[in-house]
Design brief:
The complex is a heterotrimer of chains A (about 260), B (about 500) and C (about 220). By secondary structure, chain A is α/β, with parallel strands linked by helices. Helix content of chain A is about 50%, strand content about 15%. Among the domains of chain B are: about 250 residues, NagB/RpiA/CoA transferase-like (Rossmann fold, 3-Layer(aba) Sandwich); about 60 residues, no CATH class. Chain B has 21 helices and 13 strands. Classes of the chains: A alpha/beta (about 260), B alpha/beta (about 500), C alpha/beta (about 220). Strand 9 of chain B pairs antiparallel with strand 9 of chain C, so a sheet runs across the interface.
């Protein structure tokens, strides 16, 4: 396989080679989100590659207490993306795991080679909106999305990556969008990974409050940077036939006039 | 050392108790109201304090430093307190603490002919060691004097919050308890009526009971002083009116110097009750001539704290100053209340402190009683990274379970191992995806799954699940690459 | 300490040392002082307000607690105190050891500290004290129970507390107040920020559970 590198074109514009880490659950359940990331980055003139050996970053195992089992998954991640310049993932919880826990996990193994590899890997990883705004300096990706939309701030994005403002900036530049503020936007939706199945009643109680806030906005669409939250919120919205749907931020950004995702 | 944390060892698992509490509309309303009120007040007074983050950092560093030299500071405290006329005792666990306290009380009561009762200032540590039960078994009557603890005691109930233990009760319920136990059939139910009743009822106790019992918010190593932070005045009463005072304090309550109080006395009131300063703080050192108790004892309690100290990653749990801010910020706590945790220490701090004190032998469901949202860490005045500690404790729970199963596996462990196996092998992972797409056909109705078996049923009990799309991302990408190659070669 | 007590003490200290990865205790173990001195303290230690603004802030905070704030100069203090007591309808007053008697007129029935028998105290008693220092930012008066301040029960059992605060005793911040308190660090110390309160019933803040329900302040310029 030919290895493409980032380069600067004739106009002096940086063409970045971006390696996509789709994440296991987006791959399986939300392929449109990944397609949207590709669409947006290519529209901006960058090159996307997708190492097909990738599977999972180990978040589910790590967060449920199976750190030993997460270790080989982390090892695979750093190996697969060893030659990447920039890695992007449309999932702030996965990026937060990589940024906040990978090094610690590597250190528990005592494997100096692994530790070094992780140290090289972590700074390369961006959440999708971080990549756009912080790395590429772009806040307007030419999106068009004529719907009433409310935004939910996922916990990892808010308190882990501190990037909620970034996502809001991207949203505000979407043409024809009608943004409505969500009450208690910073309160957790109740997904929490395996929490949703280990503590389904409390998870549902938290979901009911989040749904109430969404319904109060009279929005057509609820968006966020994480399909984990959205899967949970949509699960409740659909169960109760509210007629409100959820759409990942990347899909809104990928939508253009006449070509809605 | 046999650690006991109240009745946590016998408590049911969190999801089971939470299940009932989540449906209790009164608890939901009361807990939500209380946590909202304090959260708002807290936010206001914190916004006012422009050096809030600097204070948090200093507090966290002071605590970290203190734990590093905990033995030195405890010794220093003991020397200084003794020099000032206090008597310092050490207790490895709950039983030993109760034994010491009982002996002190009983010998004093016998010697002076005092009535066998004691007035108590709020301290969770006494709940931790089940002191009241030990006192009653020895024929000594403990009188709780904090309004909320009185409500709990007279109502034969259990506390549900660190700072406002009776927040699960409304005024009518309180009125009913007081009217019955204080014999006040005409009692009104306005909060003012209720507190007037409490004031009157306790006045007599404050003036006559000879033995007082308290906890401590801070022990100052440099001076041998003890600091108690309170609102109602019952603390001042119990600390100064009796002839004899016994204070129990976890060994982590130590701070190095009097100057350090300037940090904590700014963080604690704002975090706990959303006030710039709480009504009363009392700082005393040993015995004061002509002012307060003539005999003063401090019981320094371990009861599992040294276990926590030994864990480098989670020893930050011992930084806690018991402000309760994490409880108020926690979306799980505010929808279940404290009883769900089965421990005097509830909420986020309870989820990490309770199991750790017990060396992870009990309360193993508590580290999972969290969606890891991190709101607790944001408000913690001493910067305990509770989500990190929760993750660490989850791995300790799993390790413990794996050790106990010794080669065998429980269902979850097996499922996790299988998933890890598949994730490590892309071919198997892809086949797993294909299999799921096929297997779901029986369950999908109009694009959604409404029922899932086993543990996954927790999802579909309250949510739908969108069906797996027919083409995962990687297949879409692979097809696209093929087409790109075709297009390139055909040109 | 009993021999059991000594054993427990050693066991706990030992467990701490092991947990910290220290060797057994020796007399040459490094003192924590140096590290303590170098701990970060970037928070505000000093206030920025001048005396007038400080006093105004203190009075504002007191008013938040429904405490009445009166002003006086040194010469008019006796008259001011008499006026306050008259206005509040207080005829008897518990007076601490060392309280300046010249500040009290003969209209007041004085109960000296030595006559104050707590066992027969009724709610209707009133007390006057000086203070050691006061905090403007939080509206707090601090007593260290020396001359003029009375033993701790004197400012606790009565229902009404009148506190005489010299303007020069008002500092702005908590660190500044601790600087003063630390001068006599082992004296009994009580900080009072308004009357006692609880929010234990439905989060409604109720005043005056135990301790004085009424607190007034005379600021002496």
């Amino acid at each position: 396989m030919m290895v493409i590198l980032s380069w600067v074109d004739r106009r002096g514009v940086l063409v970045l080679r971006v390696s996509l880490f789709i994440t296991c659950y987006n791959d399986t359940l939300f392929p449109k989100t990944g397609q949207s990331v590709v669409r947006v980055l290519e529209r901006l003139g960058h090159t996307v590659e997708f190492p097909p050996e990738q599977t999972c970053c180990g978040q589910m195992h790590f967060n449920t207490g199976y750190q030993r089992e997460a270790l080989p998954l982390m090892q695979r991640m750093v190996e697969i993306f060893a030659d990447a310049e920039v890695v992007v993932a449309p999932s702030s919880s996965c990026v937060a795991l990589i940024r906040d826990q990978y090094l610690k996990l590597a250190e528990t193994s005592g494997d100096t080679v692994l530790i070094k590899a992780v140290k090289n890997f972590v700074p390369k990883v961006y959440e999708f909106s971080e990549l756009l705004v912080k790395k590429l300096g772009v806040e307007d990706v030419g999106a068009y999305y004529p719907h009433r939309v409310t935004y939910h701030a996922s916990c990892h994005l808010l308190r882990g990556l501190h990037a909620v403002d970034i996502q809001m900036r991207l949203l505000r530049n979407v043409r024809a969008i009608e943004l409505v503020a969500l009450e208690d936007v910073e309160v957790c939706c109740g997904f929490g990974g395996t929490f949703a199945v280990k503590n389904p009643d409390v998870s549902a109680a938290m979901l009911s409050d989040k749904m109430r806030a969404v319904l109060n906005t009279r929005a057509e669409v609820c968006t966020a940077g994480d399909n984990s939250c959205l899967m949970h919120i949509e699960g409740g919205l659909h169960r109760l036939r509210t007629g409100v749907r959820t759409v990942h931020l990347a899909e809104i950004l990928a939508s253009t006039e006449g070509a809605e995702v | 050392m046999t650690v006991r944390v109240g009745h946590a060892a016998e408590a049911a698992k969190f999801p089971i108790i939470a299940n009932t509490l989540v449906d209790d509309s009164q608890i939901r309303k009361n807990v939500r109201h209380a946590t909202d009120v304090i959260q708002n007040k807290r936010a206001n007074v914190v916004a006012e304090q422009r050096d809030w983050q600097e204070l948090r950092l200093s507090a966290s560093k002071i605590k970290e430093h203190t734990l590093k030299y905990l033995d030195r500071y405890l010794e220093q405290f003991e020397t200084a307190c003794t020099r000032a006329g206090g008597q310092v005792h050490w207790a490895t666990d709950a039983d030993e603490a109760n034994k010491i306290i009982l002996e002190l009380m009983q010998s004093a009561m016998a010697k002076h002919g005092w009535a066998r009762e004691v007035i108590k200032v709020k301290t969770m540590t006494s709940d931790e060691i089940n002191l009241n039960a030990a006192l009653e078994a020895a024929g000594i009557r403990p009188h709780e004097t904090d309004l909320a603890d009185m409500i709990i005691q007279l109502g034969d109930d259990k506390p549900s919050h660190i700072v406002v233990p009776a927040l699960h009760k409304n005024r009518t319920q309180v009125r009913e308890i007081f009217s019955r136990k204080m014999d006040l059939p005409e009692l009104g139910d306005k909060p003012q009526d209720l507190t007037d009743a409490a004031r009157h009822y306790l006045r007599e106790k404050f003036l006559n009971v000879k033995v007082g019992f308290s906890g401590a918010n801070f022990l100052v190593a440099e001076t041998g002083s003890v600091c108690v932070v309170e609102s109602e005045g019952n603390g001042r009463m119990c600390l100064t009116m009796p002839e004899m005072l016994i204070t129990v304090a976890g060994i982590e309550k130590i701070i190095p110097a009097a100057q350090d109080l300037e940090v904590f006395l700014q963080l604690l009131p704002r975090s706990a009750t959303g006030e710039r300063m709480n009504p009363y703080n009392t700082i005393w050192t040993g015995v004061h001539e002509g002012d307060g108790p003539r005999e003063f004892h401090v019981v320094l309690l371990d009861n599992g704290r040294t276990n926590i100290l030994a864990d480098k990653e989670s020893r930050q749990t011992l930084h806690c100053i018991r402000c309760g801010a994490c409880l108020n910020a926690c979306p799980v706590y505010s929808r279940t209340g404290g009883h769900a945790y089965g421990s005097i220490y509830a909420g986020p701090i309870g989820a990490i402190l309770t199991p750790q004190l017990q060396s992870m032998k009990h309360s193993q469901s508590l580290p999972y009683a969290s969606s890891l949202c991190g709101a607790c860490y944001e408000v913690c005045p001493v910067r305990i990274n509770i989500p990190d500690v929760l993750l660490h404790l989850r791995s300790k729970v799993v390790e413990r379970q794996q050790d106990m199963l010794a080669g065998g596996a429980n269902f979850e462990g097996l499922a996790m191992k299988m998933a890890a196996f598949a994730f490590a092998r892309p071919t198997i992972y892809r086949w797993g995806q294909k299999f799921a797409r096929v297997a779901q056909r029986l369950l999908v109705r109009k694009g959604y799954i409404r029922w899932l078996p086993g543990m996954l049923g927790g999802w579909t009990a309250v949510r739908d699940l969108k069906a797996l799309p027919q083409e995962p991302f990687r297949e879409w990408w692979a097809k696209r690459e093929v087409e790109k190659t075709k297009a390139a070669t055909s040109v | 300490m009993s021999s059991n007590g000594r054993k427990t003490r050693e066991m706990i200290l030992d467990r701490i040392r092991v947990a910290n990865g220290d060797g057994p205790a020796t007399t040459f173990a490094p003192s924590p002082n140096a590290e303590w001195e170098s701990l970060p303290r970037e928070y505000d230690r000093r206030g920025a307000l001048d005396a007038e603004a400080r006093t105004a802030l203190f009075a504002e905070r007191m008013a938040d607690y429904n405490a009445a704030v009166y002003y006086s100069d040194e010469d008019g203090l006796r008259a001011t105190i008499a006026d306050v007591l008259h206005e509040r309808g207080k005829r008897t007053l518990v007076v601490p050891h060392g309280f300046p008697q010249e500040w009290l007129t003969e209209h007041v029935h004085v109960i000296n500290e030595s006559e104050f028998d707590s066992a027969s105290v009724e709610d209707i008693l009133n007390v006057i004290t000086t203070c050691t220092v006061a905090i403007a930012a939080t509206g707090t008066v601090v007593l260290q129970h020396g001359a003029g301040e009375g033993a701790r029960r004197l400012s606790l059992l009565p229902d009404y507390h009148l506190c005489v605060v010299r303007e020069s005793q008002i500092v702005e911040t908590v660190p500044e107040v601790m600087d003063v308190v630390r001068v006599n660090a082992t004296r009994p110390t009580t900080t009072i920020s308004g009357p006692s309160a609880t929010a234990d019933i439905e989060m409604t803040r109720i005043k005056g559970v135990h301790g004085p329900r009424f607190l007034d302040v005379v600021i002496v310029r």
